[in-house]
C-alpha cells in the first residue's frame, strides 16, 4: 500500500465523457483506492479494515508528481503487516470540538463516536470500531450531531435517516444496523444530506447522475431502502454514492489508475430510478474504483494547500520531494544552490596570507 500528496492544480477540469489522464503510476496487478481533498495542516485519520485508527498531519504525507507512485504507507504509520487502510478522512483544525465521527461498514452497520475520543492516538493506533469477521469499514464522516445520513449500496438501493437515531458510543463499540441489505448486496458509499444538495452516484461502467435530495425521504434506520439508480448490464452496479451541491469538482479514478475531473454541476439531474449519463469511458477489463469531491479550479489559487491525497499506488518513486508546505526546496545532489559562502571563502583566501587563516574551524563542510 502506497500514499502520496499531489497539488489539486495538477488535475485540470475536463469535459465529462472523456478518457481522463494518468493520476498515479500503478503495476498491472495494482490499483488506486483512496482519494481525498485536504489541507496540509488538517488532521488525517486513517482507519484500517481491522477497525483501528491512525493519525497524521497533512504535511507529513510526502508530495510527489501526478504520475509518481508514492511512498509505502507502512513507512509512515505503525500499521501491522496484515492491516489495510480502508477509510481516510480529514479533520479541519477548527472542527475538533463538539463533533462526531459517523462510521458505516460494508455490511450496513453504523456507529457514532465523539471526535474528542480520538484526540490522543498512539503511534501504533487505537481501536475505532469492533468489526465482525466478515465486515469491513466503508466510510467515516465528520458530523455535527443532527445531520441526515445517506447510505447507498452496490445494487442501487439507499436509506436516509437522522444521525440522532444512532446513540453516541465509545471507540470500541460495534455499532447498530443502519441498512438491512438484500442478498449479495453491500454498502458502496455514504454521505451527509443537506438541504438543496443532490445525491450523486456513479456506476462501475462510468455512468452517473444527480438527483435532488428531496426525492430521498428521511426515515428510520435499519430499513431495506429505496431504489437510487436503475442498475442494468449497460451501466453496471454502483461504485460510489455521495452528495454534491453543484459547485465542487468530482475526481473519478478507475482500478487502472486513470483519473478524470469534471464539475459536478455538469452532470445531468434526473430522477432516482434512472440510468444516468456517461461520465468516463472505461475499457472492458477496467471499472470505476472510487471518486472524491474537490474544490473547483477557480477556487484553487496558485500554491494553495488544498491537495488530494491518493493511496494504494505501486512501488515508491525515486524522485522524492520535500513533504513540508514551506517555500524551501531540497537539491537532489545535496549541494547548496547559494554560492555566497563560496565567494566569501575565496575573498578570505585572497586577503589572508597567514597559515592560520586556513584551518578546520574556518572550512565550510558543505563546500569540501
Give the topology string: H per helix, E per strand.
EEEEEEEEEEEEEEEEEEEEEEEEH
Ends apart, CA distance between termini: 40 Å
The CATH topology of the largest domain comes to Neuraminidase
Count of helical regions: 1
Say which CATH homologous superfamily of the largest domain is assigned: DNA gyrase/topoisomerase IV, subunit A, C-terminal
Average residue pLDDT: 75
Describe the structure.
With 368 residues, this protein is mainly beta. It has two domains: 2-311, DNA gyrase/topoisomerase IV, subunit A, C-terminal (Neuraminidase, 6 Propeller), CATH 2.120.10.90; 331-368, no CATH class. The protein has one helix at 340-351; strands at 2-5, 21-22, 35-38, 43-48, 52-57, 71-72, 85-91, 100-105, 109-114, 126-127, 137-143, 148-153, 157-162, 176-177, 187-193, 198-203, 207-212, 226-227, 238-244, 249-254, 258-263, 277-278, 288-294, 307-311. The strands form six sheets. Strands 3-24-1-6 form a four-stranded antiparallel sheet, with no helix packed on it. Strand 12 and strand 13 (157-162) form a beta hairpin. It is globular. Residues 23-31, 299-342 and 353-368 have low confidence and may be disordered.
Amino acid at each position: 500500500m502506497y500514499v502520496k500528496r499531489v497539488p489539486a492544480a495538477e488535475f485540470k477540469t475536463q469535459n465529462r465523457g472523456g478518457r481522463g489522464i494518468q493520476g498515479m503510476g500503478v503495476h498491472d496487478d495494482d490499483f488506486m483506492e483512496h482519494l481525498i481533498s485536504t489541507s496540509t495542516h488538517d488532521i488525517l485519520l486513517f482507519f484500517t479494515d481491522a477497525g483501528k485508527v491512525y493519525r497524521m498531519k497533512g504535511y507529513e504525507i510526502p508530495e510527489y508528481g501526478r504520475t509518481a507512485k508514492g511512498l509505502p504507507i507502512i513507512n509512515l504509520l505503525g500499521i501491522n503487516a496484515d492491516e489495510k487502510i480502508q477509510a481516510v478522512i480529514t479533520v479541519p483544525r477548527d472542527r475538533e470540538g463538539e463533533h462526531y465521527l459517523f462510521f458505516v461498514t460494508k455490511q450496513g452497520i453504523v456507529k457514532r463516536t465523539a471526535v474528542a475520543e480520538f484526540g490522543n492516538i498512539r503511534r501504533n493506533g487505537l481501536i475505532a470500531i469492533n468489526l465482525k469477521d466478515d465486515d469491513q469499514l466503508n466510510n467515516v464522516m465528520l458530523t455535527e450531531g443532527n445531520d441526515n445520513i445517506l447510505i447507498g449500496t452496490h445494487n442501487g438501493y439507499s436509506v436516509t435517516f437522522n444521525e440522532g437515531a444512532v446513540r453516541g458510543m465509545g471507540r470500541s463499540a460495534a455499532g447498530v444496523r443502519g441498512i438491512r441489505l438484500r442478498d449479495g448486496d453491500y454498502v458502496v458509499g455514504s454521505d451527509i444530506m443537506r438541504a438543496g444538495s443532490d445525491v450523486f452516484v456513479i456506476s462501475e461502467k462510468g455512468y452517473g447522475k444527480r438527483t435532488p435530495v428531496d426525492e430521498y425521504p428521511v426515515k428510520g434506520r435499519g430499513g431495506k431502502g429505496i431504489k437510487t439508480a436503475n442498475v442494468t448490464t449497460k451501466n453496471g452496479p454502483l461504485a460510489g454514492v455521495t452528495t454534491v451541491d453543484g459547485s465542487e469538482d468530482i475526481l473519478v479514478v478507475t482500478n487502472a489508475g486513470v483519473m478524470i475531473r469534471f464539475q459536478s454541476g455538469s452532470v445531468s439531474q434526473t430522477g432516482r430510478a434512472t440510468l444516468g449519463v456517461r461520465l468516463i469511458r472505461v475499457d472492458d477489463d477496467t471499472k470505476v474504483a472510487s471518486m472524491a469531491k474537490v474544490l473547483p479550479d477557480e477556487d484553487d489559487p496558485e500554491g494553495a494547500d488544498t491537495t488530494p491525497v491518493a493511496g494504494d499506488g505501486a512501488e515508491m518513486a525515486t524522485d522524492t520531494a520535500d513533504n513540508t508546505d514551506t517555500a524551501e526546496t531540497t537539491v537532489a545532489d545535496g549541494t547548496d544552490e547559494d554560492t555566497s559562502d563560496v565567494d566569501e571563502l575565496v575573498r578570505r583566501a585572497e586577503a589572508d596570507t597567514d597559515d592560520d587563516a586556513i584551518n578546520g574551524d574556518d572550512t565550510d563542510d558543505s563546500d569540501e
